[in-house]
Amino acid sequence: MKTNREIDCREALKLIAAYVDQQSTKSDSKSLEKHLESCRHCFDRVEFEKMLKNRLKGLKLDTSSSEMSTEVRRFLEDL
Ligand SMILES: [Zn+2]
After folding, report:
1. Residue 64, Cα to own-chain centre: how many angstroms?
2. In the structure, what pLDDT confidence band is assigned to residue 1 with cuts at 50, 70 and 90?
3. What pLDDT digit, counting tens, does each position of 6-51 carry?
4. In a domain, 4, yes or no
5. Which residues contact 73 (CB under 8 A, 6 or more apart)?
6. Is 2 among the domain residues?
7. Structural domain for 25, as ranges
8. Distance from the CA of 77 to the center of ligand 1, in angstroms?
9. Tally of domains in the chain
10. Distance 62 CA to ligand 1 centre (A)
């Protein structure tokens, strides 16, 4: 089955970064959103990433620097 497949938290985590950046495909977004409906942990993670993204934007940091976003990703993965 390809449509509406269930994903687990590990898969969800892989999709969240792209999802927050609005880079994920429609089917990935659907799968993730479905997972978020039943998983508070991943839902909080998405909220956190969105907040962090907004905060970085608010600080007017140079987010075009790839080094910067690598640092941020690493930071998030350590949480
Ligand atoms: Zn989950």
Report:
1. 18
2. very low
3. 899 999 999 999 999 999 999 999 999 999 999 999 999 999 999 9
4. no
5. 17
6. no
7. 9-78
8. 15
9. 1
10. 31
